[in-house]
Design brief:
The strands form 8 sheets. Strands 18-19-17-16-22-23-24 form a 7-stranded mixed β-sheet. Strands 3-2-1-5-15 form a 5-stranded mixed β-sheet, sandwiched between helices. With 494 residues, the protein is α+β, with helices and mostly antiparallel strands. The chain is globular. The relative contact order is 0.13. It has 2 domains: 6-245, ATPase, nucleotide binding domain (Nucleotidyltransferase, domain 5, 2-Layer Sandwich), CATH 3.30.420.40; 255-435 and 462-494, ATPase, nucleotide binding domain (Nucleotidyltransferase, domain 5). Strand 16 and strand 17 (270-276) form a beta hairpin. 37% of the residues lie in helices and 21% in strands. Helix 11 (246-253) packs across helix 16 (437-450) and helix 15 (413-423) crosses helix 18.
């Protein structure tokens, strides 16, 4: 359904299109010059898991879903688009041959097969953590290419270009091989301080700069919409901005662009994101340190591979009719209503454990366990994992006063109360925050086209409401959080 006022379309003379290539779907939004979302559409994507630890997608599905989402936007708005920005899931290895066609499915951010290659990469480049700001993890792009080199040598030999998922869509849009620095920082091929490709990291993977896209700041133009695509979409040949990785773009969309600004993204994965004016890595605790999508800014992240995806999974498991029903079911039980503990590691974990092999578990079930208590334990388990991530960020001298909340999980105030209590941190919900990275992508396009400064483009949206930590809930959750943390060492040995 269109979120616009048809009788007032004439007011929107200049609008911007943001496209977010997510894991579960593609979102397209239209934003006016004030940053207000006036229309949006979604198109679903599927994930293939053909083997344990594997997670893949067909890159051509990204383009098909993009077409579907954009063409679902009201034609009156499409005709007024002045620029396009792109955001997307990070780390996905999209391998193209000499004809720029995909050679195999994309290996995704939550794919864990390349754990052995991570060790080999760090042995090959002894200062890799200093260069990249990160510990080598299977989710990053570089270890994936080492896996392809070892297990699919014929594919590796044919690879002429490596793009991230959103940048494959860019290639379809403009014909340009380009990327932004925030997304590229997640490949492990970037010297994050210098904001440039690292020859040492590329050489360790038998790759060269010639196989990499050209680098841009997120607010720079990388090309123009191809004439045939523009015609089919009912647009002019408008500029396309570099955009950003999903987390950086999502942060920019809600004004998290200055030193110390922080957000919590509750999407398929869960991310605590902090903008920093300088490079502040803490790889020992699996904290990510990447470039932001704006010049001369960086950011830290605590990343949890399963967040809202746990809600979707549990809803199906328990037989709920979607996430909203699961939230209602959990609320009937209440916080710490039973001994049940859920460890939300359905796809392994990053911060703080860096463990691709760990898997989720329900613990302490008894004869009194009910669907209500299972639902509640899932909400608590994700909140506890986020608390672990916040602890790791604090060890990197990061002080967070409050967290702006974005993503689909932001729709549940009850879950927010549990997260706020577990983290001991206020949660600030912003109008339009559920739109996520597509909003930031559209604003990056606006900045690229207009030349306006970041302060005028990336002001925080109005506050919808604030959830402060409830001390009584914090107190009842504290013993379960301690048991949650103790449980990891036991299940990791299985």
């Amino acid at each position: 359904m269109h979120k616009c006022y048809n009788s007032k379309k004439w007011r929107y003379k200049h609008v911007f299109l943001g496209i977010d290539i997510g894991t579960s779907g593609v979102k397209a939004v239209i934003v006016d010059k004030h940053g207000v979302v006036v229309d949006q559409q979604n198109a679903a994507l599927a994930v293939s898991r053909p083997h344990p630890l594997w997670s893949e997608q067909d890159p051509d599905d990204y383009w098909t879903a993009t077409q579907t989402a954009v063409l679902g936007i009201d034609p009156a708005f499409r005709a007024r688009v002045q620029g396009i920005g792109i955001a997307g899931q990070m780390h996905g290895a999209t391998l193209l041959g000499a004809d720029d066609r995909p050679l195999r499915p994309v290996i995704l951010w939550n794919d864990g097969r390349s754990f052995a290659e991570c060790t080999a990469l760090e042995l090959a480049v002894s200062n890799s953590r200093q260069l990249t700001g990160n510990i080598a993890m299977p989710g990053f792009t570089a270890p994936k290419l080492l896996w392809v080199r070892e297990h699919e040598p014929e594919i590796f030999a044919q690879t002429r270009t490596i793009l991230l998922p959103k940048d494959y869509v860019r290639l379809c849009l403009t014909g340009d091989k380009a990327s932004d620095l925030s997304d590229s920082a997640g490949t492990l091929w970037l010297d994050v301080v210098k904001r440039d490709w690292s020859d040492a990291m590329l050489e360790a993977c038998d790759l060269s700069r010639g196989q990499m896209p050209l680098l841009h700041e997120g607010c720079q133009v990388t090309g123009k919409l191809r004439s045939d695509i523009a015609a089919s979409w009912g647009m002019d040949d408008v500029p396309v901005a570099a955009g950003g990785g999903d987390n950086a773009a999502g942060a920019a969309g809600v004004g998290v662009v200055s030193d110390g600004d922080a957000l919590l993204s509750l999407g398929t994965s869960g991310v605590i994101f902090v903008a920093t004016k300088d490079f502040r890595p803490n790889p020992a605790r699996a904290v990510h340190a990447f470039c932001h999508c704006l010049p001369d800014m960086w950011h830290q992240m605590a990343v949890h591979l399963s967040a809202a995806s746990c809600i979707d999974w549990a809803a199906k498991l328990i037989g709920c009719d979607g996430p909203a029903a699961l939230f209602t079911l959990a609320e009937t039980a209440g916080a710490a209503s039973g001994p049940e503990i859920f460890l939300p590691y359905l796809s392994g974990e990053r911060t703080p454990h860096n463990d691709p092999h760990i898997r989720g578990s329900f613990l302490a079930l008894d004869n009194e366990t009910s669907p209500e208590k299972l639902a509640q334990s899932v909400l608590e388990g994700v909140a506890f994992a986020l608390a672990d991530g916040l602890s790791a960020l604090k060890e990197a001298d990061t002080n967070i006063e409050f967290l702006s909340v974005i993503g689909g999980g932001a729709r549940s105030a009850y879950w927010g109360s549990i997260i706020a209590a577990a983290l001991g941190t206020p949660l600030v919900y912003l109008e339009g925050g559920e739109v996520g990275p597509a909003l930031g992508a559209a604003k990056l396009a606006q900045m690229a086209v207009s030349g306006a400064d970041a302060a005028s483009i990336f002001a925080a949206p109005p506050v919808s409401h604030v959830i402060k930590p409830d001390q009584a809930m914090t107190d009842v959750l504290a013993p379960k959080l301690a048991r949650f943390r103790a449980a990891y060492s036991h299940i990791s040995a299985l």
